[in-house]
Write a structure and sequence with these properties.
This protein has 14 helices and twelve strands. By secondary structure, it is α/β, with parallel strands linked by helices. The protein has a seven-stranded mixed β-sheet with strand order 2-8-7-6-5-3-4, sandwiched between helices. Helix 4 packs parallel to helix 5 (125-134) and helix 4 (99-110) packs across helix 9 (245-254). The longest helix has 20 residues, at 283-302. The chain is globular, with a radius of gyration of 21 Å.
Length: 375
């Protein structure tokens, strides 16, 4: 068929440029450094046993079998959202099936005819898809340059009813972090600014109670739309939004990815609530994780490579796709599973290994990793 010929030729071009993706399988024999299981909860048998031991039979169901607007508004969802409100001291919370659902659905449901979006240049693809789906005017400011965002606000804020500033707390490809006090200062300087912060890689990892970068600064209540992902440090699935009650009510009525999808399974919601309650007790893991991140980033810098990481995500920028793939193979042969990240996920010429650290990496293995980076 003609369309299959066209697709085959396109795949061949991807292969030639070192950009062809295949679905990998992670061998049990390697140290996984490409997972988002930052706290190591996925394989914490003691924690899992404690969860199952207290799990009521009614919460063991594997599907909600309906959207939340029909019969899928299970007690576990209500209890988890109530627990999130208590933890953050917020008016409301709303749970979604995934971070992608959250970021593609929240903004289109909230924007008006005279809304403007200012987004960090390196915002996650899901956020960009949400912006495009909203159909509103948007500009992308230079990465982590809130001075540039301020310049755009000075130029455009008076023209629009509200300006949504969208950014991440921890950026997924570089591991650097936004300046949250400076972000909040923009909101205070321009009364029609709405702050949208994606804490996908921040929740679980930062703050004494693990509630993320904004909570760690004490400024979380200044964030109008705070998104947290459950499929990373929480070792669960789904996402949540911390917001006002009027925002929650609006999303329930307007957000298409929320309305037209089956709700999360009760057992998953129960696990997420269980992890939320456990997060304060995991501070030692968070501290060890961030120390490892600092040491790995410094080791990479010592090799003459720029590394802006300030988190558990540590990039080793190689440049060329083929070279990044070859280096990833060398690490795998040494027992470390780390994948090459290539365009279009990152800009052309910045292919990299992306070390996604987990708190439970053994000391001996981590020291061996540092030696390999230096080799």
């Amino acid at each position: 068929m003609n369309f299959e010929i066209r697709l085959t030729e396109a795949l061949a071009r991807l292969r030639q440029g070192g950009n062809l993706r295949m679905l990998p399988q992670v061998p049990d024999s390697v140290i996984n450094l490409s997972s988002n299981d930052y706290l190591g909860l996925l394989t914490d048998e003691a924690l899992l046993d404690a969860f199952y031991a207290q799990l009521p039979r009614a919460s063991r169901r594997l599907s909600a079998a309906s959207s939340r607007l029909l019969t899928g508004n299970v007690p576990e969802a209500i209890a988890f959202e109530d627990a999130l409100c208590q933890a953050y001291g917020s008016e409301a919370a709303l749970v979604f099936d995934s971070g992608y659902h959250a970021n593609t659905g929240i903004l289109p449901a909230l924007v008006g005819k005279k809304s403007l979006v200012l987004a960090d240049k390196l915002c996650h693809a899901s956020m960009i898809d949400g912006i495009r789906a909203s159909g509103c005017t948007f500009y992308r400011y230079r990465h982590n340059d809130l001075g540039h965002a301020r310049t755009l606000l000075e130029r455009y804020a008076s023209i629009y009813d509200e300006v949504f500033i969208m950014t991440e707390s921890v950026f997924s490809m570089d591991g650097d972090r936004v300046d949250i006090p400076q972000l909040v200062a923009l909101k205070r300087a321009f009364p029609n600014v709405v702050l949208y912060l994606d804490e996908a890689h921040g929740v679980g990892v930062f703050g004494e109670t693990g509630l993320g970068c904004a909570h760690a600064t004490g400024l979380h209540q200044e964030i109008d739309l705070l998104v947290g992902t459950l499929g990373k440090a929480w070792s669960s699935m789904g996402a949540y939004l911390i917001c006002s009650q009027v925002v929650r009510n609006t999303l329930i009525n307007r957000m298409r990815p929320f309305i037209f999808t089956t709700a999360l399974p009760p057992i998953n919601l129960a696990w997420s609530r269980f992890v939320l309650e456990a997060l304060p007790s995991l501070q030692a893991r968070r501290e060890r994780l961030l120390v490892m991140g600092e040491r790995l980033a410094e080791t990479i810098r010592q090799q003459g490579t720029v590394c802006v990481s300030a988190s558990q995500i540590v990039p080793y920028v190689i440049g060329e796709n083929i070279k990044a793939m070859a280096l990833a193979k060398r690490f795998r042969e040494a027992g470390f599973y780390v994948l090459p990240i290539r365009p279009p996920t990152v800009p052309e010429g910045t292919a990299r290994l992306r070390f996604s650290l987990t708190a439970t990496v053994p000391d001996v293995a981590f020291e061996r990793l540092l030696e390999l980076v230096q080799a």
